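Protocol check, entry for the methods section draft. Step 1: assemble the input record (protein sequence plus ligand SMILES). Step 2: submit for complex structure prediction. Step 3: store the structure tokens unaltered in the notebook. Ligand used here: pyridoxal-5'-phosphate. Step 1 record:
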Amino acid sequence: MANLPTPLVPLPRLGHALGAGRLWAKMDAETGFALGGNKVRKLEYVLAPPMVDGITCLLTAGGPQSNHCRVTAAFAARHGLRCVLVTNGGPEGDPTGNALLQRLFGAELVVVENRSERAARMESVTQELLAAGETPLVVPIGASTPLGCLGYASAAIELCEQIDALDDGCTETIVFSASSSGGTLAGLILGLALLERTDVHLFGVSADAPADELDVVCRRLAQDAAVNLLETTIDPEIVPFKSIDDQVGDGYGVPTPESREATELFGRQAGIVLDPTYTSKAAAALIAHLRGHGIHDHQRCVFLHTGGAPGLLA
Ligand SMILES: Cc1ncc(COP(=O)(O)O)c(C=O)c1O
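Step 3, stored output:
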């Protein structure tokens, strides 16, 4: 599914504007399939041929602007599967952004009032699908399963190959990425722990959950994938990793003055599109870090762009 490797691009103008010369973007917005983003890497494993063999229908859940639902629906369309999405909120008026694309890909929507109702509704829809003779595959929210993590473990390996080839004299890399259901950061932790890389410092910028919760989820998921899929153990603590929740503002999907500024800056200084829910908040954290601490001579900074651009057009 994914167009790999995604490019690691220098952002000299943006770096200059932020007083940090060595700024790069790892463009996972360009994984390609159905407008790309981080979900493509995870679903490449979760929806790999052996997983969907004999399946007639995909069932998953998310918010009305879920990128994960968009990519799942596109996969179903490509492979001739039925797709049912349990979404909280919407549709009001004409659908836009990801909600528009989910419908374009032919997904059927089951709307619940709020996020807390999604899991129970997924269960009841599963029973309804089974009763109707379907063989459904339930894709957990965000595809943040141990299997989905493998997509980001291999992304970590890919990123390390790219930074090692830079030959810029830097010995440490600071990576900022958006984080929500935890699979992206868990996969990165797994990949870096397997490589025993202690020179890559990860900051997972929360879109919603408290940082301490997200820390636990990510480390646990990384270990779970190592033990149950790779039959090894890792020491997730060797990877410098920290979740940050000071960009959440008024909540999930609600822009803040800092995330708006980040969207403007990335647009004007780098021609990069950020989304209001995830990447603009991760970029705001990166900007705050660079303005507050700068970067040392031995460091470079990488913004992992996890996609989501349709959300800006919603
Ligand atoms: C564009 C974008 N960035 C980041 C994330 C967060 O990734 P994860 O759920 O793996 O933590 C998501 C997922 O919800 C997303 O859609």
